[in-house]
Give the backbone structure.
Amino acid sequence: MELDYAADLHINPDELDVELLCQPDLSRKYAHNLTQKKKLVAKLEEQIKVMKAELTRRVMIKPMKTVKKDNPTGPLIEAYYRTRPEYRELKAQWIEAVSDAEYAELAYKAVTFDRKQALADLVQLHHDQYFAGPSDPRDLSKEWKARNSRERSNEAVSKAMKTKTRKEITNEA
C-alpha cells in the first residue's frame, strides 16, 4: 500500500463533500500502515531477544572459544553479543523500524485528527457562508496556491540567509 502523505493531507475546498466521504478510508489506510510498522518493531524486538539468548548460550557452552575465559562475567557476555555483527545489524534494523513507526504514528494522527478538524472547520465556514461573496466570488484554490508559493519563496530566502557565515554578515556591516 503506497501512501502519499502530502497529497493525502491536501483538502480541495471546492469538493468538501467528496473530501468528507474519503476521510474514513484515508484514516483506515493510515491506521493499517501504523499497525504494520508496529508489528515489524515487535517482530524485530523478539528476534533481538532470541539472538541475544543464542549468543549468550554460545558463550556459556564454549567460554574459552568465545570470550577466552573459563568463568565469563555478565558484562563480558554482554560485550560479546553486543559486538557481534549479526546482532548489530539486527539492532540497526530495529532502530530504523522504530523511527518508521514513530513517523507513521505522527502521519496517522495528522490525517485522522488534524485533517478531520480542518475539514470540519471548512464545512463550518461554508455553512456560515464565508465563501459566498456578494458579486465576485473568491477562487480559494488560486489563493491557496499563491500562498503556498509565497511560503516556499520565504523558506528559500530564510534558508539562504541562514547559510551565510558570521564572517559574511560581519563583512556586509
